[in-house]
Amino acid sequence: MGVRNLIRQIIHSEAYIRSTKDQKVIEIYDDCARDTGSKCKYYLLILFIITMLYILRPVFLHGYYISSGNSTYFIKNLPLSSWFPFDEQVYYLTAYVWHIFDSLIGASFVTYTDILMFSLIVYPTGQIRILHHVLKNFSTYMDNVKRLNNIENDEDASYTTFRECIRRHKEIIRYVDNFNESMSILMIFDFLQSSLQIATILTQILGNPISLMLVLFVGAFFLGMILRLILYYYYANDVIVLSSELGVAIWESNWYEQPPKVKFMMHVFMMRSQKALKLFIGPFSVMSLDSFIAILKATYSYIMLMYGVN
């Protein structure tokens, strides 16, 4: 339900932006959308490569022999570790095709979930950039409001324009609050498993003979995980930075020419913007570049622990 509300808010916001016919605002929104789309395509490509390496890996790996009593059996590798209600070595092709099917379903679920989460994280950065633009060009937008609404008084036009800026800011705050309410608990599990997952895949190089297939597999997986973390935590950090700089955007406008009532509103707005918007990892931490570094540090600790145990 929470994700549905977030998506509904995004749809309504986009419809409103398109309806304004403000080419500069639409351009900022489209630039953000294109940047999100290009990042998602890169991530999709990497996950496709990882999935193909998973599927093709058994083809390039030699099987192994096991002994049972007086018999020795040759075991062929499969892409995944799973249980079948039949002997997968006797019906190897059937088991292999089933694993391909499982791999594609699992990869699709991970890909679409990550792309959705990334898009939800990036969305407020675009909205804050639009608000930055409006505040910096406050006099221009005030003139537009005055002309479109047939307002003759500059004070009324200034008040109406800044009230719209406050409304937009409240919409962004509401979105961030809804995201934290819906996703912060899920982000705890993502934060905890990311470092362990990276460490687990990297230790395969430490504990196995080096081969081209192994290097490609581990390299692609590591690159995909790092790109995923960058997409999550870099843009979550952008929300913090951009929201805290809204006061600077007002300072760069013609605030000194505004009537006392609007100056007071701007002052209150600047004080509110000092409290940066943040996407939370549960009640424990904030999604930021510091969290990204913490994941890498935890990865190193896990690798040293696993390597020491081995």
From TrEMBL:
Parts of the chain that traverse the membrane: 42-66, 96-123, 184-206, 212-235, 279-303
Source organism, top-level taxon: Eukaryota
Pfam families linked to this entry: 7tm_6
Topology within the bilayer: Multi-pass membrane protein
Keyword presence, Membrane: yes
Key words, A-Z: Cell membrane, Membrane, Olfaction, Receptor, Sensory transduction, Transducer, Transmembrane, Transmembrane helix
GO BP term, example: signal transduction
The protein, known as: Odorant receptor 49b-like
Organism: Sitophilus oryzae
